[in-house]
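Sequence design from tokenized structure. All designs in this work follow the same two-part layout: the structure record, then the generated sequence. An example of the structure record is given first.
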């Protein structure tokens, strides 16, 4: 039988990793998310998870002070995955949960990260933490083709 199914892991799993407050954290975070999803054979879209994680980490590096490490939290749930990036700055990210006033300037190098997160995630947001804030996104599990029996 050929069709679509959702691979639902029987248990949840989560990881919390401290990353350096440098641009070197971005490819490390991407690799960690991709590896976590692949090793658990999770059904969330790996490419999208990797891209959005890179955007969150890059924003934390660029827009917060470098005195504290950044923390990456990955939660794999039967219904999808949730990724959080923690930093020491309590200031919420601008325009994450509300649309910006206009389209980003096509000539500017920056300004599309939060737009991508809003557009490609099932949901996103931020919350205060005891040491700053956490910015997060959620992706649903996606159907995968079934293998023929």
């Amino acid at each position: 039988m050929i069709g679509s199914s959702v691979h639902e892991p029987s248990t949840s799993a989560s990881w919390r990793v401290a990353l350096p407050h440098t641009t070197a954290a971005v490819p490390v975070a991407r690799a960690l998310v991709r590896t976590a999803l692949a090793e658990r054979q999770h059904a969330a879209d790996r490419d999208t998870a990797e891209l959005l994680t890179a955007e969150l980490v890059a924003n934390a590096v660029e827009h917060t002070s470098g005195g504290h490490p950044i923390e990456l939290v990955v939660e794999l749930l039967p219904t999808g995955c949730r990724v959080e990036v923690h930093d020491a700055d309590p200031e919420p990210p601008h325009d994450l949960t509300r649309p910006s006033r206009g389209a980003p300037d096509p000539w500017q190098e920056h300004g599309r990260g939060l737009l991508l997160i809003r557009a490609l995630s099932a949901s996103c947001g931020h919350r205060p933490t005891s040491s700053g804030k956490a910015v997060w996104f959620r992706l649903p599990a996606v159907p995968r083709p079934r293998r023929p029996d």
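The beta strands are 4-5, 13-19, 70-77, 80-87, 123-129, 132-140, 144-145. We note this feature because it recurs in several other targets discussed in the main text.
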